[in-house]
User: Which sequence fits this backbone?
């Protein structure tokens, strides 16, 4: 079910929360964890039961491998074999479900063959929980997961606020919190803050992101030609649609978890204020950046070797990050562009050449906006159509598809720029000051924004569910 649906907001979340604390109040923490695992698996199965056995089998196998990796009785070569075998199994599952058709289609195109695969549906959240499980295996090899039982591991993987689209949670982020006895009782402050964060996330998704979706979809999917103004409206609309959609989802995930006294890591920190591309990746999808750094870039060698190798490692890390988002050459191009930008930034910084703040922001935001075109476009012709339109500075005509909506779109864009450049982050707004949010005010905010959201639109899907 969707975070912005009646079923989640008015039935699943309050019922799961009430039963959880009813159990913990009887000092049955293990039973409460089992309840959350069961509820989370039910949440996952809402879209269909067909892949429930896959995630359950994956949990059993990875926990077994992690337990074996923590064993001191096994030799180092055996432990390495288990580690590589576990990682290979996780990547093989991800590769089959997410990339098999992509590989076969490209082979057919190159060789002229006509290989056909049966229709493969992408299991929900496989990209996210694959990364979590790989990180767990690596840390188990390092003996950093000793003491976790099967229920702890299952809850770490399936905890419903972060299960579908992150944040990509590290086991150290959540397992100790569920073991903390102080978290087994309802906390008024956490409930109030959680409601505040959840509600603002809902507002971002339904009232801002979904409004921009209209213009982005029109330009990318419907228009055959775009003039300069329409093309810029299209690209900027998707830039803001994606940000408010994904940061809104993350807010709702963080807010939902906080109701259970569980603090998930921040995933966005005003990324569109960044003055360089490195800063952008420290602010955008922070948990993905952390994973790529710790489990891709550093294992590749990081910056421990020559400068040329460091640049290559940076580029490969972003290339892998691009491909992780989806089986398409558009994602590969997007990742390669960001990898190249990071390398150029490293070279630029090496010589200590300073750039004025406004110019640095403009170049960074413009680059990010252009790269999102490849991220969104279905194919190169779609991306080229938008990019070529953006360069038609002397084209004064306005396409019919945009004729009646140009003024409203411009106002929305101005509103979005004001928010991303001046407003506090959701976390800061809801947590700064001891008296910032009370239970009453948090509940009132939640009720008003939920009512407003449902009155404005239906429950549309989050963009990152596709990745």
Assistant:
């Amino acid at each position: 079910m969707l975070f912005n649906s009646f079923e989640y907001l008015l039935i699943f979340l309050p019922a799961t929360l009430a039963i959880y604390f009813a159990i913990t109040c009887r000092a049955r923490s293990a039973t409460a964890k089992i309840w959350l695992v069961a509820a989370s698996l039910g949440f996952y199965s809402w879209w269909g039961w067909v892949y429930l056995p896959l995630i359950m089998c994956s949990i059993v196998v990875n926990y077994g491998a992690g337990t074996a990796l923590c064993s001191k009785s096994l030799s180092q070569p055996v432990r390495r074999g288990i580690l590589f075998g576990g990682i290979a199994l996780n990547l093989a599952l991800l590769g089959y479900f997410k990339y098999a058709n992509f590989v076969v289609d490209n082979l057919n195109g190159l060789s002229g063959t006509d290989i056909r695969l049966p229709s493969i549906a992408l299991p929900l959240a496989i990209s996210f929980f694959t990364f979590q499980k790989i990180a767990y295996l690596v840390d188990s090899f390092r003996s950093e997961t000793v003491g976790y039982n099967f229920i702890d591991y299952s809850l770490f993987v399936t905890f419903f606020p972060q299960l579908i689209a992150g944040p990509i949670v590290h086991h150290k982020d959540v397992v100790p919190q569920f073991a903390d006895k102080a978290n087994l009782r309802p906390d008024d402050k956490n409930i109030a803050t959680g409601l505040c964060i959840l509600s603002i996330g809902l507002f971002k998704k339904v009232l801002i992101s979904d409004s921009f979706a209209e213009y982005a979809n029109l330009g990318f999917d419907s228009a055959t030609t775009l003039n300069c103004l329409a093309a810029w409206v299209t690209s900027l609309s998707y830039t803001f649609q994606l940000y408010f959609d994904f940061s809104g989802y993350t807010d709702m995930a963080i807010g939902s978890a906080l109701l259970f006294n569980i603090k998930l890591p921040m995933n966005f920190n005003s990324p569109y204020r960044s003055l360089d591309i490195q800063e952008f990746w420290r602010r955008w999808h922070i948990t993905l950046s952390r994973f790529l750094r710790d489990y891709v870039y550093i294992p590749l060698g990081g910056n421990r070797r020559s400068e040329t190798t460091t640049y290559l490692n940076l580029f490969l890390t972003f290339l892998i990050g691009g491909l992780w988002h989806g089986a398409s050459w558009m994602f590969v191009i997007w990742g390669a562009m960001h990898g190249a930008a990071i390398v150029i930034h490293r070279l630029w910084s090496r010589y200590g050449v300073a750039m004025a703040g406004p110019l640095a922001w403009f170049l960074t935001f413009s680059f990010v906006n252009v790269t999102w075109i490849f991220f969104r476009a279905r194919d190169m012709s779609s991306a080229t159509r938008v990019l070529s339109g953006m360069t038609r500075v002397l084209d004064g005509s306005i396409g019919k598809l945009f004729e009646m909506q140009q003024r409203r779109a411009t106002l929305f864009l101005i509103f979005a720029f004001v928010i991303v450049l001046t407003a506090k982050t959701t976390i800061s707004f809801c947590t700064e000051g001891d008296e910032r949010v009370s239970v009453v005010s948090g509940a009132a905010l939640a009720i008003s924004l939920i009512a407003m959201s449902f009155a404005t639109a239906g429950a549309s899907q989050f963009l990152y569910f596709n990745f």
User: Anything to note?
Assistant: The chain has a mean pLDDT of 88. Residues 189-466 form one domain. The two ends are 17 Å apart (CA to CA). The chain has 20 helices and no strands.
